[in-house]
Fold:
Amino acid sequence: MIVVAGESLIDLVPQQPGDPLGPLAPRPGGGPYNTAVALGRLGARAAFCSRVSTDGFGEALLGGLRAAGVDTSLVQRGPEPTTLAVASLGADGSAGYGFYADGTADRLFELPPQLPPTVSALALGTCSLVLEPGASAYEALLRRESGRGVLTLLDPNVRPGLIPDAAAYRTRFRSWLPYVSLLKLSEEDAAWLGGTVEEWLAAGPQAVVLTRGGAGLTVWTRDGDEVSVSGERVEVVDTIGAGDTVNAALLHRLHPFAPRTALTSANWPEVLRYAARAAALTCTKEGAQPPTAADLSPPGVSPWGA
Structure:
């Protein structure tokens, strides 16, 4: 089983880009939430580990997980409100966010008992590793599960507006790397965090995947391999959830291997092509709507987009 730990929230997506007073449509979101839903849609056995509000938005978020086939037994509940993220869309479909997160449910996540023995992969990232007191609980979960041999994926998915002390966050980020198996970053994340692929690999991860938007993806491994694939050309509606879909696609393709050999046994060109196609399809729809397994492999078409 793959566990995704982190926040769920409601994205308020503008229906008339460029009009700050235009109508906003609520959409389920949050990087970890989107990753969990994407895993379920791809057919993976996945569970979500978080704290979700008992308000109407929280019920809708849980409904989205269950509809995707995601196990919600690890979800904590609380009466605090659901986090809201107000999206702003650029002319190219890229998204920026303003967050309303004070006193919200996902910030009050508590470290759960040891995850079930069937768990072989854990994914974390985004706001959940920034906002206290939950951030410390998620960090403790990462350290503990890594210590018992679980494959761990970290997607920082940096939101600078939520980070009051950039230098302290960069130091904390580096402290996570010894417990990370697979580090996935966007080009924007990498530039903001600083450092090099070589430095990150030396600190702990077995592999680093860098997403380059429409230009594709590149992986570097500790064994010295470097593999790149191009992105798929699609008509972009928006990019919301594309990076989260990459997380899910990577884990879905790597998961059949044992945790300690997944990143060295992977057929990286196929894994990256699969992730690039999944992300491209996400960009063709409004909001975070990851593809299903059937979307990626329609009759007579290679799942690798060849």
Remarks:
- Residues 299-306 have pLDDT under 50 and may be disordered.
- Residues 268-282 form the longest helix (15 residues).
- The chain has ten helices and 14 strands.
- The CA atoms of residues 274 and 304 lie 5 Å apart.
